[in-house]
Amino acid sequence: MKLKLIAAQRKIGQAFESAVHRMGEMDQTSEVKPATWPEVLKAGTGVTGQIALEFGPVVIRLPERPTRRPELFVVMTGRLSVTDTVRDSDSPLQSVSFGTQIAYFRYYESEGRLEHVFGAHYDVDTATPGHPAFHAQLASNDNLAEHVKDRFRLADATVDKMPPGFLKTVRVPTAQMDFLATITQVCSDHLVYKHSSTGTLDAFAALRTDCHVLEGVDAAILLGREDGCLRAHTGITGLDWRIQPDLPPGQLATLLAAIWSARGRLRTRLDRAVGTSDAREEDRPAAVSPGRSSGVAARCRRLIRGFRRAPS
After folding, report:
1. 159 and 283 part of one domain
2. Which domain holds residue 77?
3. Distances, alpha carbon 109 to alpha carbons 72, 156, 205, in Å
């Protein structure tokens, strides 16, 4: 198990260090501290069959908008669990759960002030009825300012600008915002814009590729939830935020069966809600074997096209 832990740490850690390098290519004023994975990734407490990691705190200094001075500090810390089954050295790791705390601080150097301007907790919940599986909750994480001050040797006062009394129990559906996905999102928000150079865009594309060492939380588990929030299923594959095209046949069949089953249940509920008869025979969920995956795939492609045409 220790060898698997080290292998997982190294794989994710190398992706992190590659991301740090790509950020420097995108914007030479950006800084990441610490920038080496042994300082970032530590062993966590997991369950049998899983490898648990804790990450951070990582502090990123970067501009609020491209071409500006680096006046933002972003702090990330949290946890990540993956399965202990590794197909081969080139295969992505299968994530099981994660939790990411993030805090943004705007720095006013001339006034000696750090303002906490955004905080959130990204999480996955596959058990609680009705919850978006992947979601964010707003939070005041001004306590993370100590890591900014420590890493960048600042003695400035911290002002919490998160609105007092904001509702913390609202779970906003998101994509899978694990450690590497969150780094990608931060770079997308602050280092890329419509006038970015070809070099910047190429570096961002390489960063996304470098970070794609994690598969999202098992889509079949999420889609099989009887009482799950359907909007939660839009982020089932982490960084790419789309269905993986390269699943092995058995996993593909399981995924498509789950999609078809969920679609059948939804159609039944809609039919009953509008007073029509039960769902048609073809819409009723059924067990799907790997051998039938191609037929189910065709149905699912039609279903996905229908969802894309439907108004939001």
Report:
1. no
2. 2-240
3. 11, 9, 32
